[in-house]
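Supplementary notes for students who missed Thursday's class. We covered one full example, reproduced here. Read the sequence, then the structure, then the short commentary at the end.
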Amino acid sequence: MTTVRRHLARGAAALAAAAVLCVTAVPAVASAAPAAPASPADEGVPAGPPAELPDGMYGTTDPTYDGVWRQSLAMLAQRAVNVMPADSAVNWLLGQQCDSGAFPAYRPDPTKPCDATTVVDTNSTAAAVQILAALTTYPDAMNNGMSWLASVQNKDGGWGYSAGAPSDANSTGLVIGALAAGGAPVDKRLSTQGRSPYQALNSFAIPCDAREGGGAFAYQPDKSGKLLPNADATAAGLLGGIGKRMVTTGVEPGPGPVCQDLHPLTPERAARNGASYLVKALAETGHLDQPPMPGAADSAPLPDHGNTADAVVALTTAGYGKQAVAPMKWLERNSAAWAKENGPAAYAQLIFAAHTTGTDPRKFGGTDLVKALNATGPAPKWIGPKPLTTAEQQKVLAEQKAEKHSMSGNLWTMGIGAFFALVVCALFVVRAKRRRA
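Structure (token representation):
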């Protein structure tokens, strides 16, 4: 799952650029920074000014750049742990959708129709589509969102942050997850030039024999066309490359990932190469790093909680759960304060990681993530029984297997007993007939 991270400053710049595009109605290509944008849940992002939030919203900070994003992730996380979001939360999200099917980051007055000045984006729309798919009761809204995403697919098969912007690995991976959640065959979602989303994703994959970052994904090529490794983009590329959404389940772990250059490069191979890069990046400290904020006195890299959580989801989903154990334990020990500071989307990312690995999110390093997330928004409509962890599921399956084996043995014993009883009865009948004869 990948989550797409946008630093608020970068998000503001992207939205402003997109607004110019919308006002002039010219489908120009927007410029984008070569580094991956970060989600509002990232560390070191100053919170926006407090806003008078409408009923049904999650979080307390200014929703200008992340309203739909954090709303969608919060409700996705709730559904993952068998919590039904409040009707007001769902209604707020539905009210943000434009008639075109697209979602903006935030629409202050949903009673006003969207127009050329309404800045919509692929990330907010893809996140909203995923929760609408999970809720299952809003097919029209979901399909409209998917239709809009299809309409803004770039010629190379991918998606940028906004319509007309160059494709990037994060947005492309996120939209792949939305299409998969909505039941669309991703490999058949071809652009006007006949290119698939997977082909676009592969274009950001760095060859294994590269001097730097072999196996990783780049967010976008830099100005010279060079691909630079980016952990955020790699987690997105891994999850998107295997066609998964943000909320997913782990698979039986196997051998560790190995980077291999294939010609042609398949989406799965590119994804597994990305896994090999992430495993190496996580090996030393158990977490990924982010560069310090510009102008910061301390130039040392900072732990990147959000990307580490996404890496755990991606690795476990791809069958590399053993390699995700150490970073998962690091998150349990070190992420409580980060999540509390950054709010709903941060709690959601941790719940996604817990859900994928079979960790109990209600006992996450001493924090009840579910309770904490619920407290950031309207009271849930209902809270269902706690889903079983992976260990609990395995215990239940073992008990069922033993019970089935025991029952089979009992039935076999009863069958043999019945057979001998019939034989004895038959002998009595034969003897009785002989005596009468």
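Commentary. The longest helix spans residues 390-436. DSSP finds 15 helices and six strands in the chain. If anything here is unclear, bring it to office hours.
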